[in-house]
Amino acid sequence: MTHALAVVAHFDDAAIWAGSAIRRTRTLGWEWTIVCTCAAEESRRRYFLEFCAELGARGIALEFIDHPDGDPFSRNSRVAMAARVAAAVGGAAVDWVFSHSSDAAGEYGAHPNHAEAAQTVADLIASCALQPRGVAQFAYRRFLAGRAGPPVAQPDASQIFVLDYEEISWKAAWCARARDVETRDPALGGRSWLEGLAWPCPSPEAFTVTGNPLPRPFDGW
């Protein structure tokens, strides 16, 4: 049996960047644990746990601070985050770890929480708390560099996951639900961060992999 771990920053990141890959591999028998580091707000936490429950994945919602500005770990403890994620994994063997890009440009631009999640994975591997066969980092960029626009797969991504029509439709529904969660948040004044990404439902899903390549149903370019 294949065991996979995803460490993401926000309530909707697993759905946006790897949702269909998680869904299809679950049907092939993969066991998933998904850790969301910044899920303190109730509606976001509910969305994340419902997403995990639909997939039959084990969802762990942590309550670190969601801060779109500033440096990584300027408001969250690096040591505490690594300890909490390690505790969530509980020493279980993990074959593959999925997380955010470690590139300064991130998936659509720099975000300190995304960088924190990626660095936490690196810290756990360096300390041997995780010893996966490979690490898959989300590999996206803006379609129009320097402008608002949809995220698309990076041309140099090492492996891709091609979605069929039904998978795109399913993923789009979860993206729309995420937008609705944000527009109902009075702190955002009826707007959603997702609107700045145009349509945050990238297909194909793309990953930069270190270590062993991902097995099928993932493909190389």
Describe the structure.
The structure is a single chain. The chain is α/β, with parallel strands linked by helices and 221 residues long. The chain has a single domain, classed as LmbE-like (Rossmann fold, 3-Layer(aba) Sandwich). The protein is 34% helix and 19% strand. Strands 3-2-1-4-5-9-8-10 form an 8-stranded mixed beta sheet, with helices on both faces. Strands 6-7 form a two-stranded antiparallel sheet. A hairpin with an 8-residue loop joins strand 6 and strand 7. Helix 2 runs antiparallel to helix 5 and helix 3 packs across helix 4.
For the sheet with most strands, the description reads: 8 strands, mixed
Q: At the third CATH level, what is the topology name?
A: Rossmann fold
Number of strands: 10
Identify the strand order in the major beta sheet: 3-2-1-4-5-9-8-10
**Separate helix tally:** 5
Supply the CATH class. Alpha Beta
> What is the succession of H and E elements?
EHEHEHEHEEEEHEE
| Poorly predicted sequence stretches spanning 5 or more consecutive residues | none
Q: Which geometry do the CA atoms define?
A: globular
Q: Give the amount of beta strand, in percent.
A: 15-25%
Helical content (DSSP H or I, runs of 4+): 25-40%
**The CATH architecture:** 3-Layer(aba) Sandwich
Distance between the termini: 26 Å
Mean of residue pLDDT values: 92
Rg over CA atoms: 16 Å
Helix/strand/pairing category: alpha/beta
**Structurally, how many domains make up the residues?**
1
- Looking at CATH, the homologous superfamily is LmbE-like
